[in-house]
Amino acid sequence: MTWNSGAAVRHGGAGPARAAGRFMFPQRIPATVRVPVGGSGEPALGVTMRTPSRVDVSKLLAGDLAAFGGPQADEDAAGAIRAEQVALVLRHAPGIMLANAGNALVLVLALWTTPLRWPAALWSSAVIGTVLLTLLKGRGSWRITKPTSVSRRTIHRLVRNAFILGCVWALLPLYFFAGAGQGGQLVITCLCAGMLAGGALAFATIPVAAVGFIGPIFLGAVVSLGRIGDFISLLMVALILLYVGVLLRGVFAYAFEFSASLVRQIETAKAVRQDPLTRLPNRFAFNERLDACLARLLPGGAEFAILLLDLDRFKQINDQYGHPVGDGFLVEVAARLRRCTGEGDFAARIGGDEFALIATGLTKPEDALAIAERIVAAFADPFRIDEREIAGATSIGIVLAPRDGTTANDLFKHVDMALYRAKRAGSGTIEFFAPGDDIAARERRALVRDLEQAVARGELALVYQPFLDLRTGRIAGVEALARWHHPVRGLVSPAEFIPIAEETGLIHGIGDWVIREACTTLARWPQDIRVAVNVSAVQLQNTGILQTAVRALADAGVAPHRLEIEMTESMLLSKSGAAPSVLDALLALGVTLALDDFGTGFSSLTYLRKLPFSRIKIDQSFIRDMLTRPDCAAIVRSVIGLAQDLRIGVVAEGVETTPQLDALRDAGCDEVQGYLIGRPMPAAEVSALLTADRPKTGHAA
User: Fold this and answer.
1) 81, 64 Cβ separation under 8 angstroms
2) What are phi and psi of 25, to 5 degrees?
3) What is the pTM of this model?
4) CATH number of 283-433
């Protein structure tokens, strides 16, 4: 059995039972209830609501078991239960119809020798004709696929027909019993008893229909026996009363158990299809809806769109405020997503911070874009979680079906490519899938495969860019930089392969190799030379980097203070998980820390107090413009002064001209790095440079 699992989600404000998507068993409820809630579609604070004082006749005639004290359900789930009830009735319908025809024929044979034979024949002909007409009219319909939902009106018609059929059989004792002989009366009694039992069986899941069918037959039998009035007749009335009572009790007991079983099945099925945190449909339900949309897909035009959303900076929210706040943030995102979607849209949470939306009824791509723009705009206002205001943003990828694919696999693959491009373009970006995305994705996958083997094949190499100490005029250290010499592509830029390595987790293996190689090379240089190695936030999530550093330093016989770990400001913002303990352990080992790209982030001053940095590196964007822009010059001088006050070394990056070098020396900068000092070079060239720089200094390990 299936049903629209998103209905209860999209209209969660309709009431307690509907919002939870559950069935509620009736409890004692006071006639007057004060509802302390507010908001659109709900009673305002202090509004008085009264519970119904009378049974809803429409629900009663629709077989709603709540009218009889049974389980209560919202309308969507009740429709699914009614579908099961009708399916069982239809399953028994052919047999019941044939039984009616057979019973009518038996009556004619039993009364054929009496004056009632012609009325009996007329009555039986009407019954048999109705049965044949019904069977012919419903031919083939008994095996139709069970509907997912049935309306109340359908049950109303079924109850009406059951009552009419019961009235027809009530004529049997009322009209024929008194004039029949003893044998005919016995047959009529047996027929009435059989119809009572058959009706209870046929309508066992719908008590109101069972009552509608059994009631007229019972009254007809009681009235006909009461006319006779002798002791035996009164005994038969008592027996029929007991018999009907047992039947109805069994009907209600079975119907309640039947509904309770369906309740459990529906709740289980809904739990499988619902995200427990946001109450949105989950990936399983989303895939079901997508398959249904694809089954209805017509060629030509964008019949529907898929929007894939990824929350920007969600990991930072989790890291900074904790997972309970992160969960609350996801719940609020789901609420805003519901408000941005229309009646025909289907929103779901398909991953940790990924949401997806199927938008139907589109006439042009701009319709999908309008939905995406509404969603992006919904993130403009801060999210208030536990009295905190948290900024949120999302990037969105869009595909259109059938333009961008006619299978679930193709659509998901293409929308993921569109989302990837949107995220690379920046927070809050919306991107449609483009044919070029597929080519770029194939190239990227090939690059990932090649990168997996790059270390083993010896394709990676380190180059070193020197730091110049402005006080001594000598090389103080070098920064190790990874280079990839691809056998076919040639030199691959670090800006291209490092992000891929971070996303795929390959950065851990590459980073370990860089540390080991840098320490091995450092062992061949003077002891006052240090090597700086860049690490990413991804690497610091793995405690293995600590073990690698310890082993690399020990194997190379290098003092820990000669290894410097460079971190960016943006990395500090995403510091989480194992990162604090790893940093503390590295510092305890004696490794030094440097803050790279200083001035480009937002938390530098805070972290200068929290972490014992040995050096800060002024971003090259300030150095490049310091001679032409007074604001950049002021920033450089301020950073140098701040570093001196904090007794932290300061390095200026991107020095390319002599005037820049002179200005930095005058400002009191400690070290400089850039093309003027030296471009990134192989280890052999660094060794030659150090030999020339330190002619009397040996290459002690």
Assistant:
1) no
2) -80, 140
3) 0.50
4) 3.30.70.270
